[in-house]
Amino acid sequence: MYPAELVKPMRDDLTSAGFVELTSSDEVNSQVPNSETAVLIVNSVCGCAAANARPGVKSSLINEKKPGKLFTVFAGVDKEATDAARKLMIPFPPSSPCIAIFKDGDLVHMLERHHIEGRSAEIISENLKQAYDQFC
């Protein structure tokens, strides 16, 4: 587990953009499946989360269509919430960072770490915008 003071700026990066932090399995299981449309990012301390995932998902929100709910869990910090989120993302293997889009509780779009690592925030943003246009 990472110290709270280490991850605070990484948490704040998303919560300051309107993402709701889910820290327990109960929060994940009650909020994500019961949202008409939602994006859920598994946040991480890794460089590709800082350079690609977080900027990409924040930039994607500058779009006519976007999810009604924005959620985040933090891998390596909120173990229970992250495990619950990953169960909602089956059949995809655990990955952090990753970004999932849900519609009426169903997983409809997924960006795994290998889709994020080595790709620019702009490419991630455009991918998510296309998914929002289709599912939101």
Draw up the topology in text.
Elements: H1 4-15, E1 20-21, H2 25-31, E2 37-43, H3 47-60, E3 69-74, H4 79-88, E4 98-103, E5 106-111, H5 113-116, H6 121-135
Parallel strand pairs: 1-3, 2-3
Antiparallel strand pairs: 2-4, 4-5
Q: What's the gyration radius in Å?
A: 13 Å
- Whole-number tally of structural domains: 1
User: CATH homologous superfamily - what is it?
Assistant: Glutaredoxin
Strand line-up in the sheet with most strands: 1-3-2-4-5
Biggest sheet architecture:
5 strands, mixed
- Principal-axes geometry comes out as globular
Give the low-confidence spans.
none
Instruction: Report strand %.
Output: 15-25%
The averaged pLDDT comes out at 96
Order of H and E elements: HEHEHEHEEHH
CATH topology grouping: Glutaredoxin
The total of helices stands at 6
Percent helix range: 40-55%
Structural class by secondary-structure content: alpha/beta
Number of strands: 5
The CATH class: Alpha Beta
Q: What CATH architecture would you give?
A: 3-Layer(aba) Sandwich
Distance between the termini: 35 Å
